[in-house]
Design a protein that fits this description.
By secondary structure, this protein is an alpha+beta fold. The protein has two domains: 39 residues, no CATH class; 80 residues, 2-Layer Sandwich (Alpha-Beta Plaits). The strands form two sheets. Strands 1-4-2 form a three-stranded antiparallel beta sheet, covered by helices on one side. A two-stranded antiparallel sheet has the order 3-5. The chain starts with 29 loop residues before the first helix and ends with a strand. About 12% of the residues have low confidence.
C-alpha cells in the first residue's frame, strides 16, 4: 500500500504526492520502508531538485533502477554545500538522498537526465 515516508500516512489507489505534507509517496508498506532504511543508511545527498518536474523525473528513474531514495521537500533558497553534493541552482524543490553504495549509479542516472551537474566540494 503506498504511504508517505514523512508523515507515515497510508493511501489507497495511485497517489504520487502526499496531500498532507508534499512528500513523494513511496510504494510498498511502511514496515518495508523502515526496514530498508535501517539496513541501508540513506545519508548521501545525491541531488537538489530545482522543480517538481525534475523531482518526478528523477524519482521515476531511480524507482525503475531499483534504487531506494529519500526525498525531503524544501522551500526557498538552499544552503548549498557538502562533500560531493550535486545540486541545481539556489532555488530547490527538495533534496534526494541515497545509500552510499547506490550513490555512483544514482549519480549517473541524474546526469543522464539533467546533463552535466555541478558538483560542490568543500
Amino acid at each position: 500500500m503506498p504511504f508517505c515516508p514523512n508523515c507515515e500516512t497510508e493511501f489507497k489507489g495511485n497517489v504520487s504526492i502526499c496531500p498532507d505534507c508534499g512528500e513523494i509517496v513511496a510504494k510498498g508498506t511502511l514496515d518495508e520502508f523502515e526496514e530498508a532504511e535501517l539496513q541501508s543508511d540513506i545519508a548521501v545527498c545525491l541531488y537538489r531538485s530545482s522543480s517538481s518536474a525534475a523531482t518526478h523525473e528523477l524519482s521515476d528513474a531511480l524507482r525503475e533502477a531499483g534504487i531506494k531514495f529519500k526525498f525531503a521537500q524544501v522551500q526557498g533558497p538552499a544552503d548549498i554545500g557538502g562533500d560531493g553534493e550535486l545540486y541545481s541552482g539556489d532555488e530547490i524543490d527538495g533534496e534526494f538522498r541515497v545509500a552510499e553504495e547506490d550513490y555512483e549509479e544514482a549519480r549517473e542516472i541524474a546526469r543522464s537526465l539533467f546533463g552535466e551537474i555541478e558538483e560542490e566540494e568543500l
